[in-house]
Amino acid sequence: MNLSYELTLKSQGHDLIAGLDEAGRGPLAGPVVAAAVIFNFTEIPEDLKGLADSKKLSAQRRENFSKIIMARATAFGVGICDHQTIDRINILQATFLAMKKALTALDASPGIIVIDGNLPLPNYSQPQKSVVNGDEKIFSIAAASVLAKVARDRIMLAMHERYQQYGFKQHKGYGTKLHLKMLEKFGPCEIHRQSFRPVKDFFKITNYQ
To answer: Could you read off the pLDDT of 163-172 as tens digits, one per residue?
Structure first.
């Protein structure tokens, strides 16, 4: 991974390029978290070489890179939308809202934002680009993916202490065999997304509420 995309945008007159990505669209429990990162260098520093999409890094490497990203970035921001917001406005809109929160948390105003995916950020008046698999191609998006993933994992580790029976420490709320087994055994807890199957089906079948 290199800075070719960002450097091309700079050559076109764009300054302060913010990469955006999210973590947690698919889980059955917990929040969706987005991050925005702005870098202002023309070469990747030695301590950030090897940075990649968060899914391709171990938890320890993500933690290490997150500290370096926060130290090296011109600006970074994190936005969170909880399970209740997800249930109320749906996961796509909650993801967009988390991204807007991340942008608001930046200490600098980006000249252009670059988003992982194929959908633009709605109701955003500044220049933007959406790039499919951007977290695998674009350095600033990869950095945002790491910050978002690390922030969300920390939240889910804290939730594990509160709801230990579900094994959130292991699966972070994703629908693994262990999670589904515990969900069937104990039923949903406070942070489960009621609009997601099979959580939604559980509420229908058992009249849990």
So the answer is: 999 999 999 9
